[in-house]
Amino acid sequence: MMKKWLPIVLLTVLALVLIGIKTYPYLKNHFFTEETNQAQGKKSEEGSLTFDETKHRGFKEATFPFQNKEKKKLAEAYPDQFGIVQKMYYSWDFIDNAQGKYEIKYPDENKSRLYTFSVDLKNKKNRATYELMENGQVIETIHVLLKDGIATRQMPQKHIFTKEPIENNPRADADTLYGRYIGLFNSDITNSEWYILIEGNYEDWTYSEVEFLGMPAFLIKGTISKDKSETLAGPFTMTVSKETGALLDLKCYEENEKVGFSITVQNLSINKEIPDDIFVLDVNGNKEVDNTEFNLNGVGNSGEEKTGGEEINDD
C-alpha cells in the first residue's frame, strides 16, 4: 500500500514542485538546522504507537516513520503530544473531503499566497486556485482541476492551460500522479508537513483543547528552539483539528511579538458534501500548451519565485 501514495515529505515536495513556489525550500533550508536536515535524510525507524489500522486508507505507510530510536522513545514518553503529531501525519485517513481558503505569509516580504480549494479524497477530485499577491494585488493566478483521471492547470492571465493524463502517463505512474495532484493547493491544511515543528521536541510546547472555526481543536503553544529551527527560533502557536488532524492556524513570532511566518485559515469545512458542479474549470478561449511552456510562463520563472507549474523529468 505504501507504494500507492507518497510519504508526506515527498508528497509535499512534489506538490510544491508542481507549482514552483518557495514553501518547501523555505521550510527545509531556513526553518531547520543542518543537523535536522541531515537527520531527515537518514532511514526512518518505523513503529506506530497508537495507530488505528481500521481507519487507515493506505495513503501512507501504516507505521509512523520515526527518524531514529530517540524520536520513538520521546514519543513513548509523551504519548498525548505524539498523538497530535500522528493525527496530523495521517490526516487524510480522517478527511473524506474538504473546502476552504487560507493564506501563507513569509517574513520580510510584501507578497502573500492565497489558496482556495475543494478536494474530494474518496473520489480523487480536486478543484483549487493559487493566487500570488503583491501589495494587495493579484499578480498571478493558477487554477487546477483533477477529475476523471485528467489534471488540468490554467493561468487565466496568460490565457493558457495544460493537461496531464493520470493513466498511462510516461512521466510517472498513476498512483504517484494522483498523490501529487489531489493535494495540490490544499495539502498545507489537509495533509500538513508542519507537524515537523512539533515532532520530537515535546518539552518545548504544551496544548489545550479549544474550539476553532467551529470545530474541536488543539491549541499548541510553545517555543521553537534553535536546534529545531534557527530561522523560526522563538514563540509559536499552532491550532490543529482534534478530529481530523487538519492544520487550522500557524503563527511563528519574531521579536516584540511580531508575526513572522504564518498560515491563516480564512474558512474551512471538513467532511461535508461537496456538489459535483464545483469540480469544473472553464478553459474556453485559452491556448493549450505543453508542460514546459506552461512552466516558463510563471511569474519569475528564471528567478527565485518560479510559480509556473510542474517540472517532471521524463526519465
Instruction: Report the uncertain regions.
Output: 1-26, 28-42, 302-315
User: Would you count the extended β strands for me?
Assistant: 14
Q: Oligomeric form of this entry? A: single chain
Biggest β-sheet: strands ordered side by side in the sheet: 9-10-11-12-13-3-4-5-6-7-8-14
Helicity level:
10-25%
Mean pLDDT metric: 83
- The 3D shape can be described as globular
Q: Strand fraction band?
A: 25-35%
Along the chain, the helix and strand elements come as: HHHEEHHEEEEEEHHEEEEEEH
How far is the N terminus from the C terminus? 24 Å
What is the total domain count? 1
User: How many helical stretches?
Assistant: 8
Supply Rg: 19 Å
Q: How would you sum up the major sheet?
A: 12 strands, mixed
Structural class based on helices, strands and sheet pairing: alpha+beta
Descriptive terms for the model:
315 residues; alpha+beta; twelve-stranded mixed β-sheet; two-stranded antiparallel ribbon; 21% helix
Structure overview:
This protein is of the alpha+beta class and 315 residues long. It has one domain (1-304). It contains 8 helices and 14 strands. Strands 9-10-11-12-13-3-4-5-6-7-8-14 form a 12-stranded mixed β-sheet. A hairpin with a 2-residue loop joins strand 5 (125-134) and strand 6. Helix 4 (69-77) packs across helix 5 (79-89).
